[in-house]
Design goal:
The chain is α/β, with parallel strands linked by helices and about 150 residues long. The protein has a single domain, classed as Rossmann fold, CATH 3.40.50. It contains 5 helices and 6 strands. A 6-stranded mixed sheet has the order 3-2-1-4-5-6, with helices on both faces. α1 links the parallel β1 and β2. α1 runs parallel beside α5 and α3 packs antiparallel against α4. It starts with a strand and ends with a helix. InterPro entries: UPF0178. It holds the Pfam family DUF188. This is UPF0178 protein HHA01_05510. It comes from Halomonas halmophila.
Amino acid sequence: MPSLWVDADACPRIARDIIVRAAERTTTSTTFVANHQVPLPPSKWVKGLAVSHGFDAADDEIVDRLADGDLVITSDLPLAMAAIERGASVMTTRGEKLDESNIRARVQMRDFMETLRASGEHTGGPKGYSDVDRREFANALDRWLAKNAG
């Protein structure tokens, strides 16, 4: 049975709660990986893994532990690309599926925006996490679990 791996450093609390409830409901092994302890309820199915504070330490830990068919939940595009290359499914906390068909274009756009910001351009940050985002994520996660975890 596939496992869920959550890049917990930037995971919104609302998304974390959705993931915990889904993991419990579907008895899916789920690990929140971060460079700090993530507050989680006691659970047979959900655990936290605190890693060193090095750059990309949590990302590296997730990629090292992935098995083919696992789901990684992240908005970190380099982590998403590495996970896809290892045979994992990837979803953002907004419910967007990242895969071979779209990850390279997303990484290129991220790099372009980073170049703009480095040149002094104000590009703004990501929009806030909305009720629509929460609903889209919960629905996408439920669909993935129904298809892959049962």
